[in-house]
Amino acid sequence: MRILRVMLVAVCLVFFVAGQSLAVDAAAKKITFTKYPNLKLGFLSASFGPAGIGPSLENAKMLIDFGKEQGFSWMELRDASAALSEADIKAISKYAASKKIEIVYASNRGPLDADYWQVLANSKKNAGYFKKGTRTVRSADSGDEFGKDPKKMAWTEDEFKKAVAVQNKAAKEVKAAGLQLVVEDAFLPVLGAYGYEAFADATDKAVGLQLDTANMFCVSRVRTDPKEAERVIRKIAPRLYYTHLKASVNGVCQPVLTDSELDFGVIFEILAKNKKNYIGIELVGAKTVEETKANYIKSLEYLKNKGYITIK
């Protein structure tokens, strides 16, 4: 009799947990781009970094749940040094699939960083476990050479040539693994002989690109005129694989989406025209998880109020 009671309790518990999961899924919202329904809106785990939320299995599950509740289609999982274990990556992949959230895996090293090749090797292995999404391996355009020198404005000619050679080689290795290398615009000036546009021109077409909509104004050491930024984005759009949607106001990256230096409507039009559907909101992170979540919700309201998206 006691065994029967234990079994009944266990069965009830299973149904309760399943019911709770179904209730969460039923309550989940859905985000749709009003004018361009093929675009997919996601968010970045990196935005939660300043709140102490680094790459881990439990943190990833918490953020996936948040993404599901808000109606996001995908999440960029930032693992800067590609340090997550294989077991954690497998578990994250399984959990995300159960929530129908696509994962875009992203490390964060520049081609001149001392550990670039080791991080790339780990990134290829980790990214391969995520079967949906962009199937990309991410690199920044630059790294420690800027991070350790706040006065550095651009690459030297030697740095430029080395970076191009490194990324051309990396793209071949990543392609051989069935994935795609992408390089984000970051510290580099957009224009000039050794800027991001020149880098895109010099690298093989196998080197994919990843756009950040604010970095040209608030991260690059040389602020870009919005008209020039639009010209370059239109030029490189065929090589883009996904985009960070971030706002810049007067050269300062913002903690919420707002009217930015290059109109988001223009960006959405370019991306939709080129079928570059993955767009992830990136925010300057707040000091707490709850504040960062609130800023994401405010950013969704901004996009909704501007008529860019509907939330149902």
Offer a quick outline of the entry.
By secondary structure, the chain is an alpha/beta fold. Helix content is 44%, strand content 16%. The radius of gyration is 21 Å and the shape is globular.
Descriptors for this entry?
single chain; 312 residues; alpha/beta; TIM Barrel; eight-stranded parallel sheet; 16% strand; globular
CATH architecture: Alpha-Beta Barrel
List low-pLDDT spans: 6-24
Sheet-strand content, in percent, reads 15-25%
* Spatial order of the strands forming the largest sheet: 4-3-2-11-8-7-6-5
What's the CATH first level? Answer: Alpha Beta
> What would you call the shape?
globular
Tally of contiguous helical segments: 11
Structural class: alpha/beta
CATH level 4 superfamily: Divalent-metal-dependent TIM barrel enzymes
Question: Tell me about the biggest sheet?
Answer: 8 strands, parallel
Question: Topology as H/E string?
Answer: HEEHEHEHEHHEHEHHEEEHEHE
- Rg computed from alpha carbons, rounded to a whole number of angstroms: 21 Å
The total of beta strands comes to 12
Protein architecture, described:
The structure is a single chain. With 312 residues, this protein is of the alpha/beta class. The chain has helices spanning 2-27, 57-70, 86-98, 116-127, 144-147, 157-176, 196-202, 215-218, 226-236, 264-273, 289-305; strands spanning 31-33, 40-44, 74-78, 102-106, 136-140, 180-184, 208-212, 240-245, 248-249, 252-253, 278-281, 309-311. An eight-stranded parallel β-sheet has the order 4-3-2-11-8-7-6-5. The protein has a two-stranded antiparallel sheet with strand order 1-12. The chain has a two-stranded antiparallel ribbon with strand order 9-10. Helix 2 runs parallel beside helix 3 (86-98). The longest helix is centred in the N-terminal third of the chain and has 26 residues, at 2-27. Residues 6-24 have low confidence and may be disordered.
